[in-house]
């Protein structure tokens, strides 16, 4: 990856510092990441799930406006992922993750302000910040897992365990929403991000790149151009298919709550 990120006119070489994948440090990293991912889906997922209803019922957003807001959030995630991957490789995973959590908390806190404007600005900004930290947390999970069971531990940390808390927290979120307490869900989200940030301070960096004087960093579009030129075309098709699947499935998740909500006086 270093070849993608650095120009050829370097006066000194880049030094990589890699932490061991096994031992107490790696185990502590893994447990912290498992807790952080589980907290996020269980508690931050509460406000995200009921945001479409809040936006349409309380803020009066039309379905078209809601779709545009959703599109802006997806663009934010895409942009954040691209930038976050490059930054995680150059600055280190931990630094990028902590910056992402801090920015996410600020963006979400801004949505507590009255009116539509804070939501229009804060919602895409939140997902931009989340996208920024996503490559870092995935890299940390992989690099903190022993190679012989890396796939199993990775899926446990990023998919299996985080899918369990919503079974209990989403019904609670639904009850709070029906009681007119959506703002409390936002407060819980901000507190969760603050707790994640605290846990992130305890992480040990798994891999950092020491940039020496005289190196010239390449712009992101040059990095992408190299990846597209040398990459496996089948891999690119797989990435495109995965992205399309995420776009359509996320879109359905957004509109199902709005569609199924029964308006007063409606027969449906």
Low-confidence stretches: 1-15, 209-217
CATH hierarchy, class: Mainly Alpha
Give the N-to-C terminal Cα separation. 54 Å
Which strand order do you get reading across the main beta sheet?
1-2
CATH level-four homologous superfamily name: MFS general substrate transporter like domains
How many individual β-strands? 2
SS element count, helices = 11
Largest sheet: 2 strands, antiparallel
Mean pLDDT: 80
CATH architecture type: Up-down Bundle
Return the string of H and E elements: HEHHHHHHHHEHH
**CATH topology tier name:** Growth Hormone, Chain: A
Q: What's the Cα radius of gyration? A: 20 Å
How many individual domains?
1
Structural class: mainly alpha
Q: Which range best describes the helical content: under 10%, 10-25%, 25-40%, 40-55%, 55-70% or over 70%?
A: over 70%
Shape: globular
| Residue fraction in strands | under 5%
Organism: Pyrodictium delaneyi
Transmembrane segments: 30-55, 67-88, 95-113, 119-141, 153-176, 182-203, 234-256
InterPro entries: MFS (IPR011701), MFS_dom (IPR020846), MFS_trans_sf (IPR036259), MFS_Transporters (IPR050171)
GO molecular function, one term: transmembrane transporter activity
What do these coordinates show?
With 268 residues, the protein is mainly alpha-helical. It has a single domain (22-210), classed as Up-down Bundle (Growth Hormone, Chain: A). The chain contains eleven helices and two strands. Strands 1-2 form a two-stranded antiparallel ribbon. It starts with a helix and ends in an 8-residue tail after the last helix. It is a multi-pass membrane protein. Keywords: Cell membrane, Membrane, Transmembrane, Transmembrane helix, Transport. Residues 30-268 form the Major facilitator superfamily (MFS) profile domain. One of its GO terms (molecular function) is transmembrane transporter activity.
């Amino acid at each position: 990856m270093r070849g993608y990120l650095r120009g050829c006119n370097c006066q000194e070489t880049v030094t990589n510092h890699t932490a061991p994948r096994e031992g107490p440090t790696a185990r502590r990293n893994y447990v912290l990441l498992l807790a952080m991912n589980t907290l996020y889906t269980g508690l931050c997922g509460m406000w995200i799930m009921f945001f479409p209803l809040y936006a349409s019922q309380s803020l009066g957003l039309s379905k078209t406006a809601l779709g545009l807001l959703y599109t802006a959030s997806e663009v934010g995630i895409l942009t954040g992922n691209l930038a976050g991957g490059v930054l995680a490789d150059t600055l280190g995973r931990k630094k990028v993750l902590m910056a992402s959590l801090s920015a996410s908390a600020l963006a979400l806190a801004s949505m507590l302000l009255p009116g539509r404007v804070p939501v229009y600005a804060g919602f895409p900004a939140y997902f931009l910040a989340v996208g920024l930290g996503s490559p870092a947390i995935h890299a940390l999970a992989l690099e903190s897992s022993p190679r012989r069971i890396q796939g199993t531990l990775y899926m446990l940390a990023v998919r299996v365990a985080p899918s369990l808390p919503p079974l209990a927290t989403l019904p609670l979120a639904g009850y709070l929403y029906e009681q007119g307490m959506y703002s409390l869900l936002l407060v819980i989200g901000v507190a969760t991000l603050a707790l994640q940030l605290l846990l992130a301070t305890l992480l040990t960096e798994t891999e950092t790149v020491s940039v020496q004087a005289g190196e010239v960093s390449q712009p992101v579009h040059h990095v992408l151009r190299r990846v597209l030129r040398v990459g496996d075309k089948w891999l690119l098709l797989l990435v495109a298919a995965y992205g399309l699947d995420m776009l359509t499935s996320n879109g359905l998740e957004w509109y199902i709550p709005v569609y199924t909500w029964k308006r007063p006086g409606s027969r449906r």
